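Narrative of activities, Objective 1.

The group set out to show that a structural description can be obtained from nothing but a protein's sequence at a throughput compatible with the screening campaign. Below is one input-output pair from the validation batch, recorded exactly as produced.
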Amino acid sequence: MPKFVCLPGDGIGPAVMAEAVRVLMAMRFDFGEYIFGGVALNQENKPLPVDTLNACRGAEVVLVGAVGGPEWADRRPGPEQGLIRLRKELDVYANLRPAVGNGVDLLIVRELVGGLYYGGSGVLEDGRVFDTCVYTPAEVQRVAQRAFEIARSRRGRLMSVDKSNVLETSRMWRAVVTSMAPEYPDVELTHGLVDSVAMQLVMNPQQFDVLVMDNMMGDILSDVAAGVTGGLGLAPSASLGDSGPGIFEPVHGSAPDIAGTGKANPTGMLRSLAMALEYGIGELALARSLEAAIDVALERSPTPDIGGEATTREFGDTVLANLEVPVS
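Output recorded for this entry:
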């Protein structure tokens, strides 16, 4: 089984994944590509085919491009349900979303396999609809433990984000995280309400180190953090569990409006690969080499979304030319 499983997905997914694959080839890693998302719906009528899921389970790292698009807007299940199911199947409960730039260096730790996205929903006879947010103390504890440990390895500050003045799940969340603080005397723990933290992320993001929060809040605030540090096109993510492969994917969507134009920025995908090298297989030196090469490409070969004229491929060419590993 290949060490890396690549799921190019939809829209610009295949274009940005192609640049990650070129890096994998330069580093001489085994990889395999499988259909996923809307493409898989078209071919097999399901967004996460059995062969794709089995390949992911057997890999060390799963790389995902992007899924979805207007073509599948009315499909149920849609392409996004394939991604949600894959996260649950691999139990990658801790989603790490760094935001670096403009004097900001923060990391959002988002709980990824619970909460509103998995609690169930329905329609009542009188027309009311509902979505249920469910968490257990154990689910909160394991993602908070991951956040405490990461904060300990950084600047020693952790903010737990909730809506405890309104939500029962948030009150439990805050109580569990507070009870864990004595185990980490070297980490300064604070709490913040999600609406206040959203404002602070816009006005003074430099104050933050590590933030931990539930699935929905993490989905929203990580995009805010990406916006204040350069935009979604630059942002990577890593989704980790306690065992088995992690999922690594850019934060951006499938951007069907620029699919096939050569304008896609592969930075988020390549930074996700760097996170995979570090967190997925422990190749820290290769991760740092790739990050440095990406920085050079951002300066010398920027794509149109960040004020340049380079194509996706040309950006990748610059990365490969500055990658400090043998290029085949």
